[in-house]
TrEMBL record:
Region (Disordered): 375-410, 660-688
Pfam families: Kinesin
Positions annotated to bind ATP: 98-105
Biological processes per GO annotation: cilium assembly; microtubule-based movement; mitotic cell cycle
Protein name: Kinesin-like protein
InterPro entries in the cross-refs: Kinesin-like_fam, Kinesin_motor_CS, Kinesin_motor_dom, Kinesin_motor_dom_sf, P-loop_NTPase
Source organism (scientific name): Otus sunia
CDD domains reported in the protein's UniProt record: KISc_KIF3 (cd01371)
Compartment list: Cytoplasm, Cytoskeleton
Biased composition (Low complexity): 676-688
Domain Kinesin motor: 11-342
GO CC entries: cytoplasm; kinesin complex; microtubule
Family (UniProt): Belongs to the TRAFAC class myosin-kinesin ATPase superfamily. Kinesin family.
Amino acid sequence: MAGRSRGGCEALRVVARCRPLNRREEAAGYERVLELDVKLGQVSIRNPRAGPGELPKTFTFDAVYDANSKQADLYDETVRPLIDAVLQGFNGTVLAYGQTGTGKTYTMQGAWAEPEKRGIIPSSFEHIFTHISRSQNQQYLVRASYLEIYQEEIRDLLAKDQSKKLELKENPETGVYIKDLSSFVTKNVKEIEHVMNLGSQTRSVGSTNMNEHSSRSHAIFLITIECSETGPDGEEHIRVGKLNLVDLAGSERQSKMGAHGERPKEASKINLSLSALGNVISALVDGRSTHIPYRDSKLTRLLQDSLGGNAKTIMVATLGPASHSYDESLSTLRFANRAKNIKNKPRVNEDPKDTLLREFQEEIIRLKAQLEKRGMLGKKRRRSSRRKKAVDGESATENEGEDDNEDGLEKNMENYLKEQKERLEEEKAAIQDDHSLVSEEKQKLLQEKEKMIEDLRKEQEATELLATKYKAMESKLLIGGRTIVDHTNEQQKMLELKRQEIAEQKRREREMQQEMLLRDEETMELRETYSSLQQEVEIKTKKLKKLYAKLQAVKAEIQDQHDEYIRVRQDLEEAQNEQTRELKLKYLIIENFIPPEEKNKIMNRLYFDGEEDQWKFQPLVPTGGNSNQMKKRPTSAVGYKRPISQYARVAMAMGSHPRYRVSEREPGPGGGGEVTGEVGWGWWVDGG
Ligand code: ADP
Ligand code: MG
C-alpha cells in the first residue's frame, strides 16, 4: 500500500490503542468505559456519569488495538508499510499521542530487551537493516539522532554537552532542521540500539523525576536513510527517507499544582507545543484556514512536513480503559478523530542536495586515489586480494570491475615498506663499509639515509591512517550481501512473509467492512418498499427515532465541545492574568530603579530575532574605529551577563503600554530611587 504512490494526496493514518487495566485500577474496582471493535476499527466510549438513554460515543479509525494486542500486530499491520516507504525515500512519521500512563512509551519503545515487547523504534531497526542486507545493487547509509523538546527548548540527547540548547533553522530547499544536532552513522542493529540506549539514559539521568519529566517532554528519535542506486538512465540516483519516531508529552490538561503541591512553572510552556499541535491540526482540517500556525512551537515547526506536508504520517492514540480516565480518553479520541482528516502530499525525495552518502562516496574515492598514489591499491594488491579469497573460499560473489576490498591492503603496505626499509638499511650498511669515504662525508650520507628512513616511517604512519579511514568509511556504506549480511534462514523468511500477508489481509478486510457500513447507511433509504400504509408508518417512525437519537448525540457533542472550549478559554485567561500581574511587578521595578537614560539605551539596542524567537541586543556600533573589534565585544559591555534577561524582555514589551503603568510618578534622573544607576544595574541583572 504505502510507497506505491509516487505523489498525490494521502490521509494521515490514525489508529487507537487501549492498554489493559493495570493492577491499581483493578484493585480499585474501576469499570471499563472503552469498547473496541477490532474487526471494524471502532472505539466506543461510555460516559460513566451518563444519564439513562445516553448512548456511547463511537469513533472509527484505520485500525484499533485492544488490550490483547501484541506489539507485532501494530507493527506489521500499521507501521511496516510506513518503514518500507521510508526505505524507498519517503519521509515518515509516527506520533504517539495520549494521556500519561496510557502506553505511548510502551508503544514507541516498549521493553526492548524482551523481543515480543519491543516497540516501534527497536522493531524498525530490525526491519531497516534486514531490508538493506537483502537489497541488491544499492548502497545505503543509515544515521540516527535523538532529541527532546522540554519547556520549548531542544536538547540533543546524544551530545556530550547537555547544557547546550539547539536552535531550529530553516533552509529554503530542505526545510526546517536543527542546527548542530549530532547524528551517528550506524552499520547494524546493535549500533543503532546503542544510540537509542545512550539517548534514553541521558534523558532519564537529566531529570530528577523521570515520570514528571517524560510526561512533559517530547522525545524524537530520528533515522535518516540514504540509498544510492543506478537508475534506468544509467545514472546514479540518491533517495533520502527521513523517519521521525515521536513520543509526545502527556496530553492531559496540566493540573494547576505539581505533584508535590508547588505550582509547576513549566506547565504553560510545555502545553505550548502540544496546544500548537492541536491548533495546527485544527487549522489543517478546517478548510477555511489559510494560515497554519506551524511557527507557534518548536514541535510543530519540526513536524511541519509530517502534518499536511511531504511525509507519510501515522498517529497512534493511546487510551486508558478505566472510568477515571473517561474525560482524557474522550478528548484523545476527539483529537485523533480530527487528525484523520489531514491530507499529506508525500513524495520520494530523489537527488536532494548535500546528501551524506554522496559526501561519503566522494571521500572514499579521494582516499582511494591517495592510497593508489602511494602504491597501496595497485595491481599487485588486487592479485593478492583475489588469492586470499580463493584460499578463504567464503566470498561467493566475484565482484567485477574495480573491486576494492581492503583484505590485501595492509599486507601489501607492509611488504612495500619492508622492502623500502631493507633497501635503505642495506645502503646504510654499504656506506658504513665504504672505506673510500672521508668520515665527514660518510657522516653526512648516513644522516641522509637516517632521514630517509624517518621519512619512510612517517609516510608509513600517514598511509596507515589513510587506510584506516578508508576502511572505516567503506564499512559504513551498507551493501546487501557485502558489508551487511542477512542471517535469517528460509524458514524464518517464510514466516515473516506469512505474517505480513495476514496483516495485509486483516487491513483490507477492515477497510471493506468500514466501506460497507458507510454504504449501508446511504442506501437504507433506497432499499425500502412498503406493502401497506401501516408498514410505512412503522418503518418511518423507527427511522425517525433513530435519526432523533443521532440528533441528540450531535447536540450533546456540540455542548461538550462548547464546554471544553470554555474551559480552555478560562485557562488561557487565567494564564494571561498571571502574566499581567508579573509584568506589573517588573514594570514597577524598572520604572523605579532603572535610570531612564539607561533604559532608553537598552531599548534602542534591542531587536527581535524571529528565527530564534528571542530578543537580542544589537552590537554596540562604534563611532569610527575598528568595527570588528567592537562586534566581538560580548554583550556584557554595559556590565550585565546575559544577552537578554527576562526582565529586559518585559521592559521592552511594556515600554509603550500605558495599561501596565503602575507608578504615577515618572522616575527622576537618578532612577527614582536611592539606589544609584550602577548598583541598580548589578542588582537588576544578576539578582534576576
Ligand atoms: P506513557 O508513556 O503514555 O506515559 P507508558 O508507556 O509508560 O505510558 O505505560 C504505562 C504503563 O502501562 C507501563 O508500565 C507499561 O508497561 C504499561 N502498558 C502500556 N501499554 C501497555 C500495553 N498495550 N500492554 C501492556 N502494558 C502496557
Ligand atoms: Mg512515556
